[in-house]
Amino acid sequence: MRIPVLYGSMREGRKSEAVAKFVHAELLKRGIESEYVTSEPYRDREPLERKHPEPWKSIMESADGLIVVAPEYNHGYPGQLKEMIDALTIEYNYKPVGFVGAGGYSGGSRAVEQLRQVMIELRMVPIREALYFPMVWELLNDKGELKNPELFLPRLETFLKELFWYAEALKEGREKHPWSK
Questions:
Q1: 154 lies in which domain range?
Q2: pTM to 2 decimals?
Q3: How many structural domains compose the chain?
Q4: Which end of the chain is more exposed for a tag (fewer CB within 10 A), N or C?
C-alpha cells in the first residue's frame, strides 16, 4: 500500500510540520510506502511551471490514498496547499483521503472542513475520521517534536484503520472498473 503525506505550509517558523513528520514516520513504522511531500518547491516557481509538477503527478498516480496535513491560517488552509492540490485532477480519482489538522483552539478543523469540499470535487473519498492537533505550539518540545506522541497514537490507529480499509476497497474498485480513471 502506498499513501503519501502532503504537507502544505511555507510559513517561516511553522509548527505544524512536526505533526506531518510524525504522521509520516508512523506510516513508515507500519510498513506503508509513503513519500513526504511539501509545497516548498512552489515557493520560487513561476505560475506556468506550477501546472504539471512531475514528481507530484507520479507520486499520486501510484498512490492508493492520501493524507493531507493542513495548518489552519485565518480559518482556512494555505494557498500553497491549494496550488499543489489543484495541479492534478485524474490522479486523485476514487482514492481515499484522510485529513490531519494543526492549529490553534480548533486544531485546524476549519481548514479540514474546507479541504473536504475540494477533495470531493476531485473525486477523492474523504474518510470520516480526522486527526486534530490543537494549540500545536504547546504540543512540541524544544527540538520541534511532539512532546507526548503516545497521546495521539490511539486516535491515529483509528484514523489509519479507516484509511487503509478504504484504500484497499477503492483500489479493488478501480481495478475492476478501469473507466473510473
A1: 5-180
A2: 0.90
A3: 1
A4: C
